[in-house]
Amino acid sequence: MNCDPIARWYRWLxxxxxxxxxxxxxxxxxxxxxxxRRALVLGDGDGRFLVKLVEQNRSASIDYIDLxxxxxxxxxxRAGTDRVAYRQGDALTxxxxxxxxDLITTHFFLDCLNESEAALLVHRVSRAAAPHAQWLVTEFTxxxxxxxxxxxxxxxxxxxxxxxETRRLADHRPLMMRAGFALTEQRTARFxxxxxELWVR
Length: 201
Fold this sequence. Notes:
- The chain is an alpha/beta fold and about 200 residues long.
- The chain has one domain (about 5-200): Rossmann fold (3-Layer(aba) Sandwich).
- It contains seven helices and seven strands.
- The protein has helices at about 5-20, 20-25, 50-55, 70-80, 115-130, 145-160, 175-180, and strands at about 40, 60-65, 85-90, 100-105, 130-140, 180-190, 195-200.
- Strands 3-2-1-4-5-7-6 form a seven-stranded mixed β-sheet.
- Strand 1, helix 3 (about 50-55) and strand 2 (about 60-65) form a beta-alpha-beta unit.
- The chain is globular and about 40 Å long.
- About 35% of the residues are buried.
């Protein structure tokens, strides 16, 4: 999904719809990954989580990948370039090193993928993950009728504004377990609509 058409307004659209709930969910386990030294941040958009990660992990080297050129610009303006390498590209095809990262983050990213794309992404990232790597996942859930209505509305909005083709949430949990990751902690917000997860290989 390329968010260039809405990048300028994305932050304010998020606040209008959810207040600060999405950012709180992104940073729910930030203190738990304070020891990370090599991080892969996928599809984080305008860089608000990246700023927090850079501030906390003072010696970490971070690869930041997004398809949207405008989102990359916003992230660069916020977080700087001292320890962050910004790469524009598709996470499903862009070259990744082998067994490199001790931290991976995908915040509201896997919900942009269909089942086969999610399986490919998890496979590719697991090969790039170091032993004992941590993986932060933040996503929407549709486990209630109310949540399904909200998620359907979000998919409609992003289909209209960005051309997103995905129509429903893929279940990433079995994919990550098959890749050797174990879910160690999770927190929910907004009556279960949002879930933050900490996975460890």
